[in-house]
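Design request, tokens follow.
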């Protein structure tokens, strides 16, 4: 799962640099969610909170960007 998330994150950075920041932010949020899902039970609450806040902020940025 972590390798898939890392590949998706690399692809999303490339997409956001070349094509669309909105699509890159959403795919980066998905990659972060996939990366953090396997270790949910072994983490402290603060680590989980930071990951959830990063995912929510990436989706919020993607939705706040103007469409072309």
């Amino acid at each position: 799962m972590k390798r898939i998330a890392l590949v998706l994150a690399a692809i999303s950075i490339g997409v956001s640099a070349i094509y669309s920041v909105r699509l890159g932010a959403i795919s980066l949020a998905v990659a972060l969610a996939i990366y953090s899902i396997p270790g949910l039970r072994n983490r402290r609450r603060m680590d989980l909170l930071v990951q959830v806040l990063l995912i929510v902020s990436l989706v919020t940025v993607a939705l706040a960007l103007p469409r072309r």
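Comment from the thread starter after seeing the answer: thanks! The helical segments are 2-18, 21-36, 45-64.
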